[in-house]
Amino acid sequence: MTKSTNNVSKRERDCLILLKEESRGDFPMRLHEIASTMHIKPPSALNIIRRLKTKGFVEAQDGMIKLTDLGDRLSKSILMVHRTFESLFCQSGVPESRACREAGEIDFLINSENAMKVLKRIDNPASCPHGKPIKA
Amino acid sequence: MTKSTNNVSKRERDCLILLKEESRGDFPMRLHEIASTMHIKPPSALNIIRRLKTKGFVEAQDGMIKLTDLGDRLSKSILMVHRTFESLFCQSGVPESRACREAGEIDFLINSENAMKVLKRIDNPASCPHGKPIKA
DNA sequence: TCATGCATTAGTATAGTACTAACGATATTA
DNA sequence: TAATATCGTTAGTACTATACTAATGCATGA
């Protein structure tokens, strides 16, 4: 499939971002929750989790699935790229929801240093169209 | 692998672009040429060609491999997106060769209408950093 | 005619994605 | 307490994309 420097596939990316955005400190996500949010069955989700564990981005204890420090850093980086390109698309006149979808297709493929340069080029917005901060 | 609206994978994209850029009217490419340019063995290249044929982007006669009209249109569209993002990266300060590589990772994933909007946003350059026209 | 080169087929392998069926453990609840 | 439900997990299947080697078949030029 398609990989980046960070070596994550599209669905691994989806899962990482889900864990980053949906986990609330004391309430790490559980497998069934991940599966249903990703619209796949638990064994499929487990397969993705397994790969993310192997790569060191995720750890699981007692059914609680959470990001490692490495996974947290990668998620932040992907989100920064995502919000940068989402902002670019929105500034260009692409409707917000399409901009988000489009950004999600490429955010895990683009080098974060290059994205930072693009961010500057598009006038350094502080937050994405949803209002989330671009630079963590 | 990763697919777009146009349903081509990364290597299918590479092959399409190669055919678009290297074919010279009377000299369509041959399998061995495609394979060696893509740094793969002929059977691997043939496999990609087979998929592109199935999808209607490529046709072969007497060992001559060329784009169909549909394939030509798709290649043009991908190149437009490529050059748009390449220009964006260059304008942002990313070195040309990196800009090209980065653009190549995403050009087949991005909707061309959205890319046209981005092109306008980045001041409508007529040509990419290599001097090739962006709008065919 | 024979060797070379090229296209093609067959078979293997790996990664990613997703499914069903089945099993084991735990927890709820009737 | 016993039955049921829920959840995680394993095993097995399948399909796409990617790339390989080995072998076969065809055509052309020496």
Average pLDDT score of chain A: 93
Which structural category do the helix and sheet elements of chain A fall into?
mainly alpha
The biggest beta sheet of chain A reads: 3 strands, antiparallel
Full CATH superfamily name of the largest domain in chain A = Winged helix-like DNA-binding domain superfamily/Winged helix DNA-binding domain
- Outline type of chain A: elongated
Helix content of chain A: 55-70%
CATH architectural group of the largest domain in chain A: Orthogonal Bundle
Tell me how many strands of chain A there are. Answer: 3
Q: What do we call the CATH topology of the largest domain in chain A? A: Arc Repressor Mutant, subunit A
- By oligomeric state, this entry counts as homodimer
Structure description:
Two copies of one chain form a homodimer. Chain A is built from six helices and three strands, in the order H-E-H-H-E-E-H-H-H. The relative contact order of chain A is 0.14. In chain A, helix 2 (31-37) packs across helix 3 (42-54), helix 4 crosses helix 5 (96-106) and helix 4 packs parallel to helix 6 (112-121). Chain A has a three-stranded antiparallel beta sheet. In chain A, a hairpin with a 2-residue loop joins strand 2 and strand 3 (64-67). The mean pLDDT of chain A is 93. Chain A folds into two domains: 10-67, Arc Repressor Mutant, subunit A (Orthogonal Bundle), CATH 1.10.10.10; 74-121, Orthogonal Bundle (Arc Repressor Mutant, subunit A). The first copy, chain A, has helices at 10-22, 31-37, 42-54, 69-91, 96-106, 112-121, and strands at residues 29-30, 58-61, 64-67. Helices cover 57% and strands 7% of the residues of chain A. Chain A is mainly α and 136 residues long. The interface between A and B is medium-sized, with 25 and 25 residues. The structure holds a DNA duplex (30 and 30 nucleotides).
